[in-house]
């Protein structure tokens, strides 16, 4: 449990200290006062990154050279120093890499931007699911980082000659070997976790929407290939001319997509806006349960402006979704929490 957080020169917060006395905390107040910025600091504490597309300089208060996030949990004290070109993390006054830190304070996030998950680009879906998967498994994070690096190096090789036909198979072979080793493992890990989510998802959706509707998520690739090491190598051998001519690596985790099927049809063709909100909440709840089943601990929940995106019926299900876990909300009206049975700490941000 996060017990406190201190912000210095972070966004619009020059000096702010927050102590948390319950596991349900709501930051409320008028728009523009920095409620979401506090959630963003908690997100950075959890994963080292913001969900917003933002440069490090934007995290630092105007006319300042750095920002600081300090937090106290039940067991550890954390410090994150943010400078324009670097971020530094300490745990109990000892340096720690963000790669080793991810998963130590796991979190799940609901933000209004996530309503673009179904209609937006596949990059949004990749970031959404990879953020979750990386917190589940340090090995997945390592494999993904290594594979993305090989993917970029291979593309650089394919673009390295002015005359593309001068590129030889041997030029890309070292990167093909790394890709062939890692891609099947990543594919299997993603598929297994999606299967676990799919087992829980319809039940969570029924709890939120009071409807029993079939809902599944499937991992898809723009290419047809056998997800084994030999299968990937065979694909690269067979499609070398395509890759050489297009100067593209055709198989990589970043080329995969996550497709949603609702009522046996593409979700984007059949779900209303209200149903999309229900599905997003049910996905969050399913992820929370899969995380617990895998790691035996619950992630914290960061719910940004969630009430503005939900009708009154769906709002009543929020307490069920955030059961057993520390949850941070932002809202303009604290009256939304009157129906909560558990204690809620209200913090006015002004």
* Average predicted confidence as pLDDT: 94
The coarse overall form would be: globular
The CATH class assignment of the largest domain is Mainly Alpha
**Pattern of helices and strands:** EEEHHEEEEHEHHHEHHEEHHEHHEE
Gyration radius (Cα, Å) is 22 Å
* Secondary structure: helix percent: 40-55%
Supply the CATH architecture of the largest domain.
Answer: Up-down Bundle
Describe this structure as you would to a colleague:
With 350 residues, the chain is an alpha/beta fold. It folds into 2 domains: 1-106 and 298-350, Rossmann fold, CATH 3.40.50.300; 115-296, Up-down Bundle (Glutathione S-transferase Yfyf (Class Pi), Chain A, domain 2). The chain is 43% helix and 21% strand. The protein has 12 helices and 14 strands. It has helices at residues 35-47, 56-59, 98-101, 122-136, 138-158, 169-209, 229-238, 240-246, 267-270, 273-295, 312-315, 318-321; strands at residues 2-10, 13-19, 24-28, 67-73, 77-82, 87-91, 94-95, 107-110, 215-220, 257-262, 265-266, 300-303, 327-331, 345-348. The strands form 3 sheets. A 6-stranded antiparallel β-sheet has the order 2-1-4-5-6-7. A 5-stranded parallel β-sheet has the order 8-12-13-3-14, with helices on both faces. A hairpin with a 2-residue loop joins β10 and β11. α6 (169-209) packs across α10. The radius of gyration is 22 Å and the shape is globular. It starts with a strand and ends with a strand. The mean pLDDT is 94.
């Amino acid at each position: 449990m996060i017990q406190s957080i201190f912000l210095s020169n972070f966004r619009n917060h020059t000096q702010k200290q927050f102590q948390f006395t319950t596991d349900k905390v709501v930051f409320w107040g008028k728009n523009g006062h920095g409620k979401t910025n506090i959630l963003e600091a908690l997100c950075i504490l959890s994963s080292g990154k913001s969900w917003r597309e933002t440069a490090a300089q934007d995290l630092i208060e105007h006319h300042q050279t750095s920002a600081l996030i300090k937090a106290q949990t039940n067991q550890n004290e954390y410090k994150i120093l943010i400078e324009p070109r670097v971020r530094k993390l300490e745990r109990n006054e000892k340096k720690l890499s963000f790669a080793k830190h991810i998963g130590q304070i796991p979190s799940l996030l609901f933000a209004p931007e996530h309503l673009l998950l179904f209609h937006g680009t596949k990059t949004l879906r990749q970031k959404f699911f990879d953020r979750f998967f990386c917190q589940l498994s340090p090995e997945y994070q390592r494999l993904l980082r290594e594979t993305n690096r090989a993917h970029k190096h291979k593309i650089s090789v394919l673009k390295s000659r002015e005359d593309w036909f001068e590129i030889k198979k041997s030029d890309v072979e070292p990167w093909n070997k790394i890709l062939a080793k890692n891609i099947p493992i990543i594919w299997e890990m993603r598929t297994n976790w999606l299967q676990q989510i799919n087992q829980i998802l319809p039940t969570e959706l029924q709890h939120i929407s009071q409807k029993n509707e079939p809902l599944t998520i499937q991992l898809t690739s723009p290419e047809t290939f056998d997800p084994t090491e030999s299968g990937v190598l065979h694909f690269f051998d067979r499609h070398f001319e395509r890759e050489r001519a297009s100067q593209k690596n055709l198989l990589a985790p970043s080329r995969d997509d996550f497709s949603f099927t609702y009522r046996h049809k593409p979700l984007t063709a059949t779900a209303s806006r209200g149903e999309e909100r229900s599905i997003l909440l049910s996905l969050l709840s399913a992820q929370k349960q899969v995380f617990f089943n895998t790691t035996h601990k619950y992630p914290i929940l960061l719910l940004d402006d969630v009430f503005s995106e939900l009708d009154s019926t769906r709002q009543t299900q929020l307490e069920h979704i955030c059961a057993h876990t520390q949850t941070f909300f932002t809202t303009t009206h604290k009256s939304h929490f009157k129906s909560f049975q558990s204690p809620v700490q209200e913090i006015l941000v002004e």
